[in-house]
Amino acid sequence: MNDLFDNFERIESNDPEFHEIFKNFAYDEVFKYSTLTQKESVLVTLASLIACQSPKAFKKILLSAVGKYITAEEVKELLYQSVPYVGFGRAHNFFGVVIKVFKKKEIVMPMKKRSNTDSQNRYEKGREIQDRYFGKEMIQAMNDNAPEGQKHINTFLEGYCFGDFYTRDGLNDAERELITFTFIATLGGCENQLRSHIQANLNVGNTKEKLISAITVILPYIGFPRSLNALAIVNEF
């Protein structure tokens, strides 16, 4: 997948030494140790760049990948999925980047709506996803044990995070949880959430091997400390 680095022409022309080192590592060597599909590799790379706050690198890889390794619809869902995890403050710039890339690629916008919930059923549908991913008993216990004055946060998780986003078409459960794992691993400092979503990944069919492959692919972007931290937590399972 060396072509994903083709649009980094400024680095290549001005610092060919670094360009060669990084390209050989990030777009050749790491893939020898990954079992991810090409689409999954692009999904986790773009997800990591959102959480890293790297809009320029995101744009260059998206230009190479959209229409070849990943569809425009999947890009839209990746971006939507990022919002409850990295926050709109971090995701905002990437909406603009995606719009620019889509215009350059002559992808028609606005795109088809992918929502499957409304104001009446978003909480119910979100709870169904939570129960399936994490287990009904665990979610019920989390809600029952929420301190007074904090129960609304669990309500937000149910209706907004899971009801509004996870129920959408465009990505399946395994893909959504894989990129969610990537967002959290990239952010760092969210170890309890990382543990929860490792379990959710396993519950929706992603293997420990796949999670290690995701860490392998994003290591060039997030560095060794956060990668080793995420790996240590995966190895608890």
* Rounded mean pLDDT score: 93
The Cα radius of gyration reads 18 Å
Low-confidence stretches: none
> How many beta-strand segments?
0
Strand count, sense and barrel status of the largest sheet are:
none
Residue fraction in strands: under 5%
Q: Approximately how much helix is present in the residues?
A: over 70%
Termini distance? 30 Å
Q: SSE order, as H and E? A: HHHHHHHHHHHH
Seen as an oligomer or otherwise, the chain set is: single chain
Summing up helix and strand content along with how strands pair, one would put the structural category as mainly alpha
Helices, by number, come to: 12
Described by the principal axes of the CA atoms, the overall outline is: globular
Would you kindly provide a written description of the structure presented here, covering whatever features stand out?
This protein is mostly helical. Helix content is 72%, strand content 0%. The chain has twelve helices and no strands. It has helices at residues 9-14, 16-29, 38-52, 55-65, 72-86, 88-104, 122-134, 136-144, 151-166, 173-187, 191-203, 208-234. Helix 3 packs parallel to helix 5 (72-86) and helix 10 runs antiparallel to helix 11 (191-203). The radius of gyration is 18 Å and the shape is globular.
Topology:
Elements (H helix, E strand, L loop, with lengths): L8 H6 L1 H14 L8 H15 L2 H11 L6 H15 L1 H17 L17 H13 L1 H9 L6 H16 L6 H15 L3 H13 L4 H27 L3
Helix pairs in contact: 3-4, 3-5, 3-10, 3-12, 4-6, 5-6, 5-9, 5-10, 7-8, 7-9, 10-11, 10-12, 11-12
GO molecular function: peroxiredoxin activity
Protein name: Carboxymuconolactone decarboxylase family protein
Organism: Methanobrevibacter millerae
